[in-house]
C-alpha cells in the first residue's frame, strides 16, 4: 500500500524547517525528476513544449526547460507572466542561458503541462480553457506536472482539464488524483521525490492506495482439512435469481467450502451449489440483496438478526430497516446510485448521484464516521473501501467490469472470504483486488467480458 494525502504543504514545510532544504532546492528536484523521465523515454533533439503558468507549478516547468535546453528542442510557452518569486528567478536563469519564450502552442513530440498545480481553487479563465483545448488536440506525448491542469484539490474537473499520458506528482500521492472524474485525465501516475526519500518526506495518513502485492489469496496450506474447514456461505435468492446464482458460483470459485442458495422455489443450479429453504445453522457468512426485489419484511429482519458475517448489496440499500443494523460488522457494496439511497436512509445527506461522484471520498468518510463498525465498499472507476475512517483506494479495475453481473461476482468473492474467516475490511479489499486483477487478465476485447469470464479469471490469479 502507498500513502495518499489530501495535501502536502505541511511536508514541504517540514523540509524547509527540519531538513534545511530550501524551496528552490525542492523545485530543482521536481524539475529534475521530469527531466529524467523525458530523457529515459525520448531521444535527444526531439521537441518538447513546456506550458508554464504564473505560479510555482509554472516555475517547475521553467526549471525543466533549462535542464533540457540544448539536448532537446525546447519551446517554453508562458501565456501569463511569471508572478511568484521563484517563477521570476527561474525565468531569469532560463533567459540567461539563452532560452527564448514561444508565443503560441506549436506542434511537438512532447507536451509538459505546468499551468496549474494541485492547489487550483478557482474556475479556469477563457485563455486557459483555449490553451488546454489546443494541447489536448495535439498528437504528442503528454506529461502533467503534479496534476493535470483543470483538476482541483477535490479531484473535480473545472470545465476543462489537460489529458495526460503520465502525471508526475511531487513528493507524495494526493487524493485529488484518484477521483472517478480524474481517471480519464491523469494517465499513469509517478511520484517524484524532492531530495529525500518518500519515507522521510511523508507523514501519517489514514488513506492508502492498494497495489497488486496487497492481495492475500485464500490459498489452502493446511493439509488436514475438509470442506467445512473453509466455511459455509449462503446466498438469499430474490425475484431475479440470476444475480444470486452468479454470486454463489463466484463464492464457490474463491474458496468457500460449501455454498448454499436460500429459496423456497426450486432453482436450476450448478451441481456444486446447494439449495435450502432455510438458512442452515452452520452458516459462517451470508449475502443478501442481489436481485432481491420484493421480500417479506419479517423474514428480512430474521435474516439480519442472525449473528453471522454478512455482505449487503443492491436492493437492500432501498430498505428502511437496514439502518437498524448498520452498527453490525457488515460489508456494504453499493454503486453510486445505491449509495445515494443509503445516505438518504441514514439522514446523512439528501444529494444526487452527481454530487456523490463530485466528492466520493468525502461522503464515504462521512458514512464511516457515523457507522465505524461497518465496512463500505463504494463501487466506481476507482473503488473506495472504508472502515472506521480508514480509507483504501483501488484503481486497478477497468471499464470491462461495466457489465451487468460484475457486481454480483464481487459480492460472491467477498462472501467467500467472509466464510473463510477473513475480517470484513480485509475481505472487502482483497476481493476488490481479485475482481480488478481478474478483469485485467482477461485477454479478449474489453467489451466482451461476461460474469462467467470474470469467475474463470479469478480461478487463475
Give keywords.
Rossmann fold; UDP-N-acetylmuramoyl-L-alanine:D-glutamate ligase; 2 domains; 12-stranded mixed beta sheet; 7-stranded parallel beta sheet; 36% helix; elongated
What is the CATH homology-level superfamily of the largest domain?
Ribokinase
Write down the CATH class of the largest domain. Answer: Alpha Beta
Number of strands: 19
The residue-averaged pLDDT reads 96
Q: What strand line-up does the widest sheet have?
A: 8-1-10-19-18-17-16-15-14-11-12-13
Largest sheet: 12 strands, mixed
At CATH's second level, what is the architecture of the largest domain?
A: 3-Layer(aba) Sandwich
What structural class do the secondary elements suggest? alpha/beta
In CATH, the topology of the largest domain is named UDP-N-acetylmuramoyl-L-alanine:D-glutamate ligase
Low-confidence stretches: none
The domain count comes to: 2
Shape: elongated
Architecture blueprint of SSEs:
Layout: E1 2-5, H1 9-18, H2 23-41, E2 47-52, H3 56-68, E3 73-77, H4 85-97, E4 101-102, E5 110-114, H5 126-137, E6 141-145, E7 166-170, E8 173-174, H6 183-186, E9 188-192, H7 198-201, E10 207-209, E11 232-236, H8 241-253, E12 258-262, E13 274-276, E14 285-288, H9 297-305, E15 309-312, E16 330-332, H10 336-345, H11 353-358, H12 360-370, E17 375-378, E18 383-387, E19 390-394, H13 406-419, H14 424-441, H15 451-458
Parallel strand pairs: 1-8, 2-3, 2-5, 3-4, 5-6, 6-7, 7-9, 10-19, 11-12, 11-14, 12-13, 14-15, 15-16, 16-17
Antiparallel strand pairs: 1-10, 17-18, 18-19
Amino acid at each position: 500500500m502507498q500513502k495518499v494525502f489530501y495535501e502536502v504543504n505541511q511536508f514541504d514545510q517540514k523540509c524547509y524547517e527540519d531538513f534545511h532544504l530550501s524551496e528552490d532546492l525542492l523545485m530543482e528536484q521536481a524539475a529534475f525528476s521530469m527531466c529524467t523521465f523525458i530523457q529515459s523515454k525520448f531521444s535527444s533533439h526531439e521537441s518538447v513544449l513546456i506550458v508554464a503558468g504564473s505560479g510555482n507549478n509554472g516555475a517547475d516547468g521553467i526549471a525543466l526547460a533549462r535542464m533540457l535546453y540544448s539536448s532537446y528542442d525546447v519551446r517554453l510557452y508562458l501565456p501569463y507572466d511569471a508572478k511568484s518569486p521563484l517563477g521570476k528567478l527561474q525565468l531569469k536563469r532560463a533567459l540567461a542561458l539563452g532560452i527564448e519564450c514561444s508565443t503560441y502552442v506549436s506542434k511537438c513530440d512532447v507536451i509538459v503541462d505546468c499551468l496549474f498545480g494541485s492547489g487550483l481553487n478557482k474556475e479556469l479563465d477563457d485563455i486557459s480553457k483555449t490553451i488546454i483545448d489546443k494541447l489536448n488536440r495535439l498528437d504528442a506525448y503528454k506529461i502533467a506536472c503534479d496534476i493535470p491542469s483543470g483538476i482541483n484539490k477535490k479531484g473535480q474537473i473545472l470545465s476543462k482539464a489537460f489529458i495526460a499520458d503520465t502525471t508526475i506528482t511531487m513528493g507524495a500521492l494526493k487524493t485529488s488524483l484518484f477521483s472517478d472524474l480524474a481517471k480519464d485525465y491523469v494517465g499513469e501516475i509517478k511520484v517524484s521525490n524532492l531530495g529525500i526519500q518518500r519515507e522521510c518526506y511523508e507523514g501519517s495518513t489514514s488513506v492508502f492506495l492498494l497495489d497488486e502485492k496487497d492481495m492475500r489469496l485464500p490459498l489452502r496450506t493446511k493439509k488436514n482439512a475438509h470442506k467445512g474447514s473453509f466455511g459455509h456461505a449462503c446466498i438469499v435468492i430474490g425475484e431475479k435469481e440470476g444475480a444470486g446464482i452468479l454470486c454463489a458460483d463466484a463464492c464457490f470459485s474463491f474458496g468457500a467450502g460449501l455454498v448454499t442458495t436460500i429459496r423456497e422455489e426450486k432453482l436450476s443450479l450448478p451441481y456444486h451449489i446447494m439449495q435450502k429453504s432455510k438458512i442452515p445453522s452452520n452458516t459462517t457468512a451470508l449475502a443478501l440483496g442481489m436481485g432481491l426485489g420484493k421480500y417479506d419484511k419479517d423474514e428480512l429482519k430474521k435474516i439480519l438478526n442472525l449473528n453471522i458475517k454478512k455482505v449487503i448489496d443492491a436492493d437492500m440499500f432501498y430498505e428502511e430497516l437496514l439502518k437498524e443494523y448498520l452498527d453490525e460488522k457488515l460489508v456494504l457494496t453499493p454503486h453510486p446510485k445505491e449509495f445515494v439511497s443509503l445516505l438518504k436512509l441514514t439522514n446523512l445527506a439528501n444529494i444526487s448521484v452527481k454530487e456523490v461522484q463530485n466528492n466520493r471520498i468525502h461522503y464515504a468518510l462521512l458514512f464511516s464516521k457515523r457507522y465505524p463498525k461497518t465496512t463500505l465498499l463504494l463501487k466506481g472507476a476507482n473503488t473506495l473501501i472504508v472502515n472506521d475512517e480508514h480509507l483504501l483506494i483501488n484503481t486497478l479495475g477497468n471499464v470491462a467490469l461495466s457489465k451487468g453481473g460484475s457486481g454480483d461476482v464481487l459480492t460472491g468473492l467477498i462472501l467467500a472470504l467472509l466464510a473463510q474467516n477473513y475480517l470484513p475490511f480485509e475481505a472487502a479489499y482483497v476481493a476488490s483486488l481479485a475482481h480488478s486483477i481478474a478483469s485485467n487478465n482477461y485477454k479478449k476485447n474489453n467489451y466482451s467480458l461476461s460474469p462467467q469470464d470474470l469467475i474463470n479469471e479469478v480461478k487463475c490469479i
